[in-house]
């Protein structure tokens, strides 16, 4: 479902004499439908960079990043947008809060964008907010003023609203209490059971061991971390 072949990523530091640093070299691995793979490696080894690159937030210098049957490195921008809307979801570490949009709409939005009828999208959003223990009194309010943990749970509800065939999860259980952490792990297991291919970063080893089938140590692709 997700396949990387010989992917390279460098950053050019324009504020430091255009120095070029190799962040990731020769990354190749594949994640099958129904499988969860954990990215591991020390802080700064390139886990988040790798995930952002797979999602297309960072451009790869070379190589192939295939999601379904689309190579995102070569694809036209509108094709990348379609893949991100329909095929591959990304739960970043923090919710990007849009001012004045009520929580229920924040969660339903990804479904509305792919043409889900409004009543169905709303029902799914409600189901997820309930599962993630966001009290109903908050559903009509913008998440801007919510606590960090509440914003994170809204972010997860939004990320899981559409049942993407591929998902990227950057620290989805960080700073959650045990109850909500268990809910997130259940959502991941449900997604795997319906055949989603998942790449996750989990600092919590117990969480990683429970939902992930395999680990990939990003340090092996990182000349900086190896040095
Ligand atoms: P991890 O998530 O494993 O902690 P990151 O992917 O955040 O690591 O960072 C990997 C390396 O890439 C670090 O050395 C970091 O400083 C560098 N890096 C990340 N993003 C950028 C950027 N936009 N520009 C330059 N260097 C970056
Ligand atoms: Mg990171």
From TrEMBL:
The keyword Nucleotide-binding applies. Keywords: ATP-binding, Nucleotide-binding, Transferase. Belongs to the ABC transporter superfamily. Its EC number is 2.7.8.37. Residues 2-227 form the ABC transporter domain. It comes from the Bacteria. It is an enzyme of class 2 (transferase). InterPro entries: AAA+_ATPase (IPR003593), ABC_transporter-like_ATP-bd (IPR003439), ABC_transporter-like_CS (IPR017871), CP_lyase_PhnL (IPR012701), P-loop_NTPase (IPR027417). It comes from Sulfitobacter undariae. GO terms for molecular function: alpha-D-ribose 1-methylphosphonate 5-triphosphate synthase activity; ATP binding; ATP hydrolysis activity. Pfam families: ABC_tran. This is Alpha-D-ribose 1-methylphosphonate 5-triphosphate synthase subunit PhnL.
């Amino acid at each position: 479902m997700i396949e990387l072949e010989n992917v390279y990523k460098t950053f050019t530091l324009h504020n430091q004499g255009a120095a070029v640093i190799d962040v990731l070299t020769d990354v190749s691995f594949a994640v099958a439908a129904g499988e969860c793979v954990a990215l591991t490696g020390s802080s700064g080894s390139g886990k988040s960079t790798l995930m952002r690159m797979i999602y297309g937030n960072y451009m790869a210098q070379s190589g192939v990043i295939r999601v379904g049957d689309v190579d995102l490195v070569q694809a036209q921008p509108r094709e990348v947008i379609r893949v991100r809307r329909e095929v591959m979801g990304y739960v970043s570490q923090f919710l990007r809060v849009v001012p004045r949009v009520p929580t229920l709409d924040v969660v339903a939005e990804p479904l509305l964008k792919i043409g889900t009828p409004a009543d169905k999208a709303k029902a799914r959003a409600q189901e997820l907010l309930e599962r993630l223990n966001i009290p109903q009194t908050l559903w009509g309010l913008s998440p801007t003023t919510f606590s960090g943990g509440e914003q994170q749970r809204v972010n997860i509800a939004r990320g899981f609203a559409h049942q993407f065939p591929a998902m990227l999860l950057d620290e989805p259980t960080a700073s959650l209490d045990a109850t909500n952490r268990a809910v997130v792990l259940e959502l991941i297991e449900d997604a795997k059971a319906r055949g989603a291919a998942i790449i996750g970063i989990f600092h919590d080893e117990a969480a990683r061991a429970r939902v992930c089938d395999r680990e990939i140590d990003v340090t092996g692709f990182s000349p900086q971390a190896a040095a």
